[in-house]
Write a structure and sequence with these properties.
single chain; Farnesyl Diphosphate Synthase
Length: about 400
């Protein structure tokens, strides 16, 4: 599994915030300003709106995705469960959003305390020896993270996420076990407490001391990666939705927490987080639709099993990799679903971010939907044919997104 928020070419301002907000590189000077805006934004949210338009609601899609229905029945909420292995497996995404919003106030207060807390290097020295002068530690840590960023050639990746991805899907991924993932989880927890295990965690400890990042989102991502070790099929879209939350939406939620929200925003934080989740699920679905073949060769099918069956398709059809009328019809419905998710999510997010960040989301939305266009132009052949948007087109889309963010059209 490659984390689905890595596009290759992304606006420079977006790269900067990812680097500064999530231990990829040296924090930007704007970081303090973003944090202040985020704090001001949260102060204006008390009390939170509780009407149906401001509170996150789980979304339901029918097979053809011709309509989007909002459901709030107990059965509907129960359908959106956190993946097995998390601390609260019965917590719905709706409840998770409400908890994230509530925790932001505490996190902002904690940031001021963390800034005054010195790093505890006991574990670092124990695992790696005391070979780096303390005065150079932070610089060396961020330099190491920068190297991962450059080598990955993925502008929306960050060091912690890339290293976790390699843990399961890298050259030694076949040796990954639950114990290995548990150790990673513990090292992340210790980094949040100012006790880094390695040089990369030094940068993470420094980052979380400057930005109000929710550790639960890191835990969600870890559990999503854990599921990749055993879960190769998804019975319905509810299950795939939850998987995409863990492996896509949680990253976008971290971006929102790192970058802050415009002080002029009139939307509730619930709505913004709802948008981030929806956008992340749609972005992940786009990534899965373009990589059907590569995923199948690893024994994974990121498609709803019940909808494959309803379309007259099976796992064998996916592994066989032949485009048929049934496959075209199935993929057309999935692509429409991805577009709806991307449009809904971006409409809730872009206008609420600062201009220098919002245009990055414009660019992501435009490029993601163009990839879906390419899948259609390639006659839905994503078994062996690579699906991508060329760099000249990406550059044009970046300029288009920037113009849109300025309201030029």
């Amino acid at each position: 599994m490659a984390f689905p928020i890595c596009m290759g070419v992304v606006p420079l301002s977006f790269q900067g915030y990812c680097l500064g907000g999530m231990n990829g590189c040296t924090p930007l000077s704007q970081g303090k300003r973003k944090l202040e805006l985020g704090e001001a934004q949260i102060k204006t949210r008390q009390p939170m709106k509780q009407n149906s338009e401001s509170v996150y609601q789980p979304r339901r899609f029918n097979l053809s995705c011709k309509s989007v229905q909002t459901t709030t029945t107990p059965a509907a909420v129960a359908g959106f469960r956190i993946l097995d292995g998390t601390e609260n497996p019965t917590t719905s995404i709706k409840e998770r959003v409400e908890k994230l919003v509530s925790n932001q106030r505490t996190l902002l207060a904690d940031v001021e305390l963390k800034k005054q807390r010195p790093l505890d290097l006991t574990l670092l020295d124990q695992f790696h020896g005391n070979y780096i002068p303390k005065s150079d530690l932070l610089k060396v840590a961020y330099d190491h993270c920068r190297e991962i960023f450059v080598k990955a050639e993925e502008s929306l990746s960050f060091a912690w996420g890339k290293r976790l991805d390699e843990l399961v899907d890298g050259i030694n991924g076949s040796h990954a076990t639950n114990d290995v993932v548990d150790r990673w989880k513990q090292s992340t927890f210790d980094a949040f407490q100012g006790r880094p295990w390695n040089i990369y965690d030094v940068a993470l400890s420094d980052t979380v001391s400057k930005f109000p990042l929710e550790i639960q989102l890191f835990k969600d991502i870890i559990e999503g990666v854990r599921s990749d070790m055993t879960k190769k099929r998804f019975q319905n879209f509810d299950e795939l939705y939850l998987y995409n939350y863990h492996n896509g939406s949680a990253f976008f939620l971290l971006l929102a927490q790192a970058m802050g929200i415009s002080a002029e925003s009139k939307a509730s934080l619930e709505n913004v987080y709802h948008g981030m989740i929806t956008f992340g699920v749609g972005f992940s679905l786009m990534d899965q639709l373009r990589d059907v073949g590569p995923d199948a060769r690893m024994g994974r099918i990121y498609l709803p099993q019940d909808e494959l069956l309803a379309a007259g398709l099976s796992d064998d059809d996916v592994f066989r990799g032949k485009v048929t009328d049934k496959w075209r019809k199935f993929m057309k419905g999935q692509i429409e679903r991805a577009r709806v998710l991307l449009d809904e999510g971006s409409s809730l997010v872009i206008q609420e971010m600062n201009d220098d960040v919002g245009w990055g989301f414009w660019a992501l939305a435009i490029i993601a939907k163009e990839i879906l266009d390419v899948i259609e132009a390639n006659d839905y052949e994503t078994f062996t044919r690579e699906t991508y948007v060329g760099k000249p087109k990406i550059l044009l889309n970046l300029l288009l997104a920037y113009a849109k963010s300025l309201g030029l059209f």
